[in-house]
# Entry
Amino acid sequence: MDYRGRIAPSPTGRLHLGHARTFWMAQKRAVSQGGCMVFRMEDLDLPRCSPEHVQGCLEDLKWLGLAWQEGPDKGGPYAPYLQSHRTALYKTALTRLAEEGHVYRCYCSRKDIERAVRAPHASDDDPIYPGTCRNLPTQSGTCPQYCWRFKVPAGETVRFEDERLGSCQYEAGRDFGDFVVWRADGIPSYQLAVTVDDHLMRITEVVRGEDLLVSTARQLLLYHALSWMPPSYYHCPLVTDDTGQRLAKRHRSLSLQAMRIAGATPKAIREKWRQAF
Ligand code: GLU
# Structure
């Protein structure tokens, strides 16, 4: 099968060096296998994504020397490449999951969950949903506000081979709980959208940061429920600052935009990474 990789930024702020290194790694792996690179804009959380950041992402990554063959600026056989234009596809997957009993309506507010969950948190720090609505006798409810959650098979181990880390495993119900696939504000969740898109866009390898390892386990359960073949995975180490803290959008001086303005060259940045890997 021909290699198809992807770059999937969320335009909620300017990209920093950490994102860029992951995308650069994604490109390196695609190029080394003579593959194709897809650019997908993960702009589902519209209130947090601005058109300015959408443009900024494209600009910053082009400046750094990344290239893609399919994307919002190029088109391609699996268009649209903006998640905000793909809601109908996510809805179809949700309907299937609901018909087959993999998801349920959850009426809990964030506060309800915080009150019920004092201790357990997933390995990536999401509170583990205590299952309050999982076995409600009727799913009709009168409350108009609800999200959809995926029923994880508690106690089951999700295993996968990471191309860098080797064998990884997470236990459903302990490392993560019933997760949201469709938010109460009507927005599909990251977990559902990314699974549907990676499948429909025929992505063969997902390269992303290690912070998403537990999400990979969640997504593998979605692949299984939808009877889809999952891609392979390569999780990159996270970039940290001088104090060992993971880079975040608040590290403004390490945004690609700020570095460009300060006179950094793409060549110098890429050279540093070449030595690090
Ligand atoms: N849009 C996600 C992010 O910027 C990446 C998700 C993924 O690679 O699956 O963190």
